[in-house]
Write a structure and sequence with these properties.
The structure holds 2 protein chains of 2 kinds. By secondary structure, chain A is mostly helical. Chain A folds into 2 domains: about 220 residues, MFS general substrate transporter like domains (Growth Hormone, Chain: A); about 210 residues, Growth Hormone, Chain: A. Chain A is about 80% helix and about 0% strand. The longest helix of chain A has about 60 residues. Chain A is globular. Chain B is built from 6 helices and 24 strands. The chains are: A mainly alpha, B alpha+beta. The interface between A and B is large, with 49 and 44 residues.
């Protein structure tokens, strides 16, 4: 049935395409025909590998924690600067990535430019290691950060552009899984790459480290190639199908910030305090598992990457579940409490860390599925771009600061204290969730409504709004306020689809470009 | 970007304030008890220092017991700890006999009946091996060992209740091996890593090897220790895992060299250390290098010569153990040409790290506040519901 529909729509596309191209030409073979599914699959492959390099290289420092620290004579605080420098440009870029893609470069050129940034960043990073110049490595991470997050935006814009109304949810799911595969492969393979580099160079040291980082940089080169190919294919499709270049459609208006409701600020607090207890921990995890649990380096890297491995299959399933059940605040609370439990397990017990890390992976996926869509409930659609941009910006700010603090804590107070610090962050997050629950309850908001309740509300709101529109003029402000509950369902789906949730076709979003690494991870 | 950076700096600064405040943790621990320390160099010997090395005597007098710490560099450097149940016990040295180095009983603790037990630790040999394949296994390629009994030891350098002893073998081109003994009058811990917790019943020995020219570029080192005791010498090593690495970051183990299991009592001696050495004179986490230790085994006929042991014990029982520095993949000694390792020798229950108050406070506040919020919020909502319900009643 679905197949049939798809074929219908494809045929429709093809017909449109040919017409637009100006009269019947020689029919293209399916694989070269931009309107055909087979061609789109080819495009999808390039699309998926577009982000592979940046995901692979993002966690290079974590995968080589001991080697980086030893070969470059660093302390942990300095080591964590590598992560902080990645986050700094994104404190600002979260607001402008979409603008740059839409207005300045265009999607094709923009993608290539951001891929170049990723490539050049990684090369600078590796060169810094080769020459044993740490400031150069930091600079490399900074350049890498400029490209990395914006590349994720570009990747999603491409996906929307090519698969809108078709296999979009599946495509988002696949991109997400590729991202995780990139992180996981990195975690598990870089140790081996380094040992090969040592064998090649003769001795461990900054040369071997630089060499292995250069090798890791090949994945970025590969992604750059994908960007070029995609640009070419997109241009070609534009000519043949006469379609428009993709747009993120992101509108950022910083003055909207003053209108953000209390609930949104609470969501921000949850987001920042939660994620700062995840990523910096993964960045520092390897040595923890080696020293505390007597793991071999390979085992430690494996357990460190389990969070990513789990979230790949768990995100769609959990997303579907949250979507069906609703009650987002409760889910967020469950996720935060589970994360707290996982961190406390790691801090205060010698239990096998596979348990805690698996729990962390699950709860982390659950949080992503339940938390990010909530933003769409509390702000009107026209402020959504600003809200998401702001959320990611302060999240990056938090990550940069906590990365620096975490390194300093580890150097001075050890892992127990670091874990306690992360627990406190999670506790702050938990406080915000509890407050969110009560605030929402008192306001009679729909954050914690069940899915059925939401559908009912949506129906009422729709008819209500229609009545109003018919009977009298509604002031603009009022309309904006009312717009939120009205379109909440659709909006939420739009952001859910980013997380790889499988949604029915008619819920498919028209764009979903605000997704950054932090969301995808 | 500038304001963001300074914001980060402020954040870090306020965090360091927290760190500093957590250092004042002894307030919570409560002062256990204090020993009165008295330090005496070459007890009972008139002016000229004895040839061949000094003898240091530190008396740590408690309420009704005394610990005698004797540290001597005649022969291999030795620390002897004698525990007596009298607060007036004394050490008697028969110097002419003591300097003959072969007469048992030339150093006595009087009255003899007050002796509860005694333990000594002898730093006997320094071993070096060429770790060609970076395996950190000292099975082969051992260079001829340095016997510490043949070293030339400089006079003891005293400051307060600590003494510094440095020496070098005749074959050392440059560099030295130093031992620093510190005796404590109360509980506390060093500011320097590994920040071992010590009690008033223990002394700390820090050993470091500074500037020695290694005999191969891939040299690693081992230190041979001998534990000497009367009836029940230290004979087994116990590994204790701890979740608390606040004081020695990234180290989650404590090793203890103890008497046989059935002979371990409250008053028995112990040697305690954390399996970490440091490659710089100002130790930091990233300069930490794991140590491994072999199982102790009886050393019959292989005892290192120590004048102190010969003078005090009639029939010494000796167990030997090697501590090896560095594991596979770690930098070799040649890189920094420095190694330091710290160990405690004491009597009684070995001190154990416990959570600092800072951790407890953070966990309590962190977990307590959301709970309180939950309860408060719940109560508030219940009250509101009640109120609104009663408000509606009159209308109905």
């Amino acid at each position: 049935m679905a197949d049939y529909e798809e074929r219908q729509s494809l045929q429709g596309d093809e017909a449109e395409g040919r017409q637009a191209a100006g009269g019947p030409g020689r029919p293209l073979p399916a694989i070269c025909d931009p309107g055909h599914l087979l061609h789109r699959v080819v495009v999808l492959v390039f699309m998926c590998f577009l982000g592979f390099g940046s995901y692979f290289c993002y966690d290079n420092p974590a995968a080589l924690q001991t080697q980086v620290i030893q070969d470059l004579d660093l302390n942990t605080a300095k080591f964590m600067q590598l992560y902080a420098w990645y986050s700094w440009p994104n404190v600002v870029l979260c607001f402008f990535g979409g603008f740059l893609l839409d207005r300045v470069f265009g999607i094709r050129l923009g993608t290539i430019i951001f891929s170049l940034f990723v490539c050049v960043g990684q090369v600078i990073f590796a060169t810094g290691a080769l020459l044993n110049r740490f400031w150069l490595m930091e600079a490399g991470r900074f350049v890498f950060g400029i490209g990395g997050e914006s590349l994720a935006v570009a990747q999603n814009t491409y996906a929307v552009n090519w698969f809108k109304g078709k296999e979009l949810n599946l495509v988002f799911g696949l991109q997400l899984s590729m991202a995780r595969v990139g992180s996981t492969v990195n975690m598990n393979i870089m140790g081996w790459v380094y040992s090969r580099a040592v064998a090649l160079v003769g001795a461990p040291g900054h040369t071997a480290l630089g060499a292995s980082l250069m090798i890791a940089g090949v994945t970025c080169l590969f992604s750059l190639t994908c960007a070029l190919v995609l640009g070419f294919l997109d241009k070609r499709a534009e000519k043949i199908l006469n379609k428009e270049q993709g747009k993120t459609g992101e509108v950022i208006k910083l003055t909207d910030v003053k209108d953000f409701p209390l609930t949104l600020w609470l969501i921000f607090i949850i987001c920042v305090c939660y994620y700062v207890a995840i990523f910096p921990f993964i960045g520092l995890g390897q040595v923890f598992f080696i020293e505390k649990f007597d793991f071999s380096p390979a085992e430690a890297r494996a357990v460190n990457s389990i969070v990513y491995i789990i979230s790949a299959p768990a995100s769609p399933v959990l997303g579907f579940m949250v979507d069906r059940i609703g009650k987002n605040v409760i889910w967020v609370m469950v996720a935060v409490i589970a994360t707290l439990a996982a961190h406390m397990m790691l801090a205060f017990t010698f239990w096998n860390p596979w348990i805690a890390m698996s729990l962390l992976g699950l709860s982390y996926s659950l949080l992503a599925c339940a938390l990010w869509p909530m933003v769409a409930f509390v702000v009107p659609e026209h402020q959504l771009g600003t809200a998401y941009g702001f959320m990611q910006s302060i999240q990056n700010l938090g990550l940069a600061l906590v990365a620096m603090a975490a390194g300093a804590i580890l150097d001075n107070q050890g892992y127990l204290f670091l874990e306690v610090f992360f627990c406190v962050c999670i506790c702050v997050s938990l406080m915000a969730v509890v407050m969110l629950y009560f605030v929402d309850y008192l306001k009679g908001g729909d954050l914690n409504m069940s899915a059925a309740g939401r559908a009912r509300l949506q129906k009422e709101a729709t008819s209500d709004a229609e009545n109003k529109r018919r009977s009298s003029k509604v002031s603009e402000g009022e309309l904006a306020g009312k717009a939120a509950p009205m379109s909440a369902f659709g909006l939420r789906n739009r952001y859910l689809s980013r997380l790889g949730a499988q949604l029915p076709d008619h819920f498919s979003s028209h764009l979903s470009s605000l997704s950054h690494r932090s969301v995808l991870k | 970007m500038a304001p963001v950076r300074s914001c980060g700096a402020f954040y870090l600064y306020s965090f360091f304030l927290l760190l500093v405040s957590s250092e004042s943790q002894s307030v919570f621990r409560g002062e256990s008890f204090r020993r009165k320390l008295s330090v005496e160099l070459n007890p009972g010997r008139p002016a000229p220092p004895p040839p061949g090395g000094d003898l240091l005597h530190v008396r740590a007098v408690g309420l009704n017991d005394t610990l005698h710490f004797l540290f001597c560099s005649q022969g291999a450097p030795t620390l002897l700890l004698v525990h007596t149940n009298s607060s007036s016990s004394t050490v008697e040295v028969d110097w002419p006999q003591f300097l003959m180095r072969n007469v048992s009983g030339s150093l006595r603790v009087e009255p003899e009946s007050s002796i509860l037990q005694s333990n000594a630790i002898v730093f006997s040999r320094l071993l070096e091996y060429d770790d060609v394949n970076d395996t950190a296994n000292a099975t082969s390629d051992l260079f001829p060992p340095y016997d510490l009994q043949d070293f030339t030891w400089a006079p003891l350098n005293l400051s307060g209740a600590s003494a510094l002893l440095c020496g070098a073998a005749a074959t050392f081109a440059n560099g030295s091996l130093c031992l620093k003994l510190t005796v404590f009058d109360s509980e506390g811990r060093d500011q320097m890593l590994p920040r071992l917790l010590h009690s008033a019943n223990s002394s700390q020995l820090e050993v470091w090897l500074d500037g020695l020219l290694p005999r191969a570029s891939r040299s690693r080192f081992l230190l041979e220790l001998q534990a000497v005791g009367g009836a029940y010498p230290l004979s087994r090593v116990e590994v204790r895992r701890s979740i608390d690495d606040e004081f020695t970051p990234t180290i989650f183990k404590v090793l203890q060299w103890l008497p046989p299991l059935n002979r371990t009592s409250h008053g028995s001696g112990f040697l305690q250390w954390k399996p970490v050495s440091y490659r710089r004179s100002s130790p930091s986490v990233e300069e930490g290098s794991p140590t491994r230790s072999s199982l102790p085994r009886p050393q019959r006929g292989e005892e290192a010569f120590s004048a102190l042991i010969t003078a005090f014990y009639a029939e010494p029982e000796t167990f030997g153990m090697n501590v090896s520095f560095g594991i596979s993949g770690e930098p070799f000694y040649d890189r920094s040409r420095f190694l330091s390792w710290t160990v405690l020798l004491g009597v009684g229950t070995p001190p154990m790290d416990s959570f600092s108050p800072m951790v407890l406070i953070m966990m309590a506040v962190g977990l307590g506040t959301p709970m309180m919020l939950l309860v408060l919020g719940g109560v508030c909502i219940c009250v509101r519901k009640r109120a609104s319900a009663s408000n509606y009643e009159p209308i109905n």
